[in-house]
Amino acid sequence: MNQEKFISSYIELLNSTLTEAIQKNLTILAQKNVIEQELNEIKGSVDNVNKNLKGSLEQKEKEVQELKNQLNEARRQKELATGESNELKKNVQHIDTFKSELVKSRSEIDRLNKQLQEKEDIIGDLNKKIETLLKPIISTKKQEKPIKKPLIEKQEVNINLVKDAGSF
To answer: Residue 165 has what DSSP assignment?
Structure first.
């Protein structure tokens, strides 16, 4: 009997162990299926995140390239503006030089006009003196020969002054 009890006990233990093992195995398989489903969902969301990140990265790279192009264009425009600014500065210097030369020329013209006026006044005075000196001689020579031309001819000088339309 001892052996029967032992075998019976052994079979009972074996059944309970097998049942327990099968239950544990079923639990583990169920957990494995749940974990695999969750893993697939996580992989799908990771793939979506990767796609979004790649799209964002491409978009940011395009924006960076666009900004680089804008920066290069701005630098080129700055260089052009600098060149134009230098040209304008040179032109301003030329205008200032021209202006100072114009002022010098005007003052020289004014000085020469004054000298000319003084010489005309002197010539006019001399012509009057000559006429007064020649009157007695002319009256005696009229009987002999008329004088057609005075000794010093009066010169007419036409000076056209150009007034500036504005000031510099």
So the answer is: S
Nearest to 162 by CA among 97, 110, 126, 101: 110
Residue 48's pLDDT is what? 95
Distance CA 70, CA 93 (A): 34
Query: How deeply is 127 buried, as exposed, middle or buried, from its count of CB atoms within 10 A (0-12, 13-18, 19+)?
Result: middle
Q: Tell me, yes or no, if the pTM score tops 0.85.
A: no
Q: Would you say 127 and 154 are in contact if contact means Cβ atoms under 8 Å apart?
A: yes
**pLDDT number for residue 108:** 92
Select from 155, 154, 137, 156 the least CA-distant residue to 146: 137
What confidence tens digit (pLDDT) does each residue in 91-138 have? 999 999 999 999 999 999 999 999 999 989 999 888 888 888 877 776
Token couple for 28: 């583990």
pLDDT of residue 136: 76
Q: Indicate left, alpha or beta for 111 from its phi (over 0: left) and psi (-120 to 50: alpha).
A: alpha
Three-class DSSP labels, 59-107: HHHHHHHHHHHHHHHHHHHHHHHHHHHHHHHHHHHHHHHHHHHHHHHHH
Cα separation of the two ends of the chain: 138
